[in-house]
Amino acid sequence: MEPESKGLKTAEDGEGEGDYIVISEVGRGSFSTVSKAVHRQSGQVVALKQVHLSRLNRHLKNCLDCEINFLSSVNHPNIIRLLNSFQDEGCVFMVLEFCDEGNLAAYIRRHGRVEEHIAKRFMQQLGAALEILHSHHIIHRDLKPENILLSGTQDDVVLKVADFGLSRSLHPGDYAETVCGSPLYMAPEVLQFERYDGKVDMWSVGVILFELLNGRPPFPGRTNVQVLKTIKSSTYLPFDQVILSRLHPDSVDMCSKLLSRNPVKRLSFSEFYSHRFFQGF
Fold first, then answer.
1. How far, in whole angstroms, is CA 151 from its chain's centroid?
2. Is residue 155 among the annotated active site residues?
3. pLDDT per residue over 96-124, tens digit each?
4. One CATH from 1.10.510.10, 3.30.70.660, 3.40.50.1970, 2.60.40.10 for 104-276
5. What CATH code is assigned to 14-97?
6. 229 labeled part of a ligand binding site
7. 3-state secondary structure at position 6
8. Which one of 62, 68, 162, 250 is at 20 to 30 Å from 4 when CA atoms are compared?
9. Strands 156-161, 148-153: pairing kind
């Protein structure tokens, strides 16, 4: 990762880590830490993501480059907003808007399964974000409830797709091969080390929709191998039968077509957005 990335400055050029007061850590991964912080001068509350460059291989550095360049070029209510970025002391810092309502995973843990009208509203917002990714030829590759942040109020929740740390540019007709993502939300072609395209994000959307409607992901497993085995052994979507009896056929059809094991038969983005499930939006 070089400082030449679009929108990325060195500390000498402007802001640095010292311009922010860290309040608390809100997330930690193998390569980065996310903290709630306050800008010393303006008092603005932000999320400060610190990425340790020494821990990134070439693939992850390319993903970081893609993340910064993409977020620097978009401004959409359903995509986390990048306010600033800079390089300081061997780390890249991303200053992001702070979402005070947590993430979708915590929302599901609190509320359990949601009613269909709420699932539709959430999917409509997720679809709006995917439309932006699609127009920029970006695949996310790690869509999951933990990476969908919430803002707004309890009665008017706004979803924001975040953590583009595994994203990459992929033009129509091209394929990727790197195995990455979170097992419960990874498409079978990724789990099987096959080449793949943007349809992997549609699989993840299907898993998220199923989880919203049913209260848990469809294909459990603690490892990639276990999840793939569960996917291959499933002959039908494992909805709770009581829940299934109450779901509209369009909801079930949307899940089924997003969770097609064959990516050729899986819904494309345009088919997803025009599905009967969204009637009324």
1. 15
2. no
3. 999 999 999 999 999 999 999 999 999 99
4. 1.10.510.10
5. 3.30.200.20
6. no
7. coil
8. 162
9. antiparallel
